[in-house]
Amino acid sequence: MTQYLLSVVVDPSVYDIPQEEAQPSYEATGRFNDELRAEGAWVFAGGLGRVDEATTVDNTGADVVVTDGPYVETKECLGGFWIVEAPDLDAALKIAARASAVCEQKIEIRTFDGA
Question: Can you give the residue range of the structural domain that contains 42?
Fold first, then answer.
């Protein structure tokens, strides 16, 4: 089985949706997570905090540079992710389609190096 990263691509404004409006999506995502566990595809998943609260650490030069905010300015950001196991890309695509429907966002699929 290959492990795939299913990245949830969101517009940062999604973080401004009131909790009560987002609740149905959270509940649908929870049910989807339970389905993945039952199917044996679940490895790990998580939602991420606001991109404007990120901190970037750069230790590629002479000094460590710590900067408030994301590494790059973009119109979309990573809002969450799943790591799933699937026998092939076609199976991962089917899981990603279900994930996109339940969280109502676009999903990017990537394998891990060496997969």
Answer: 2-111
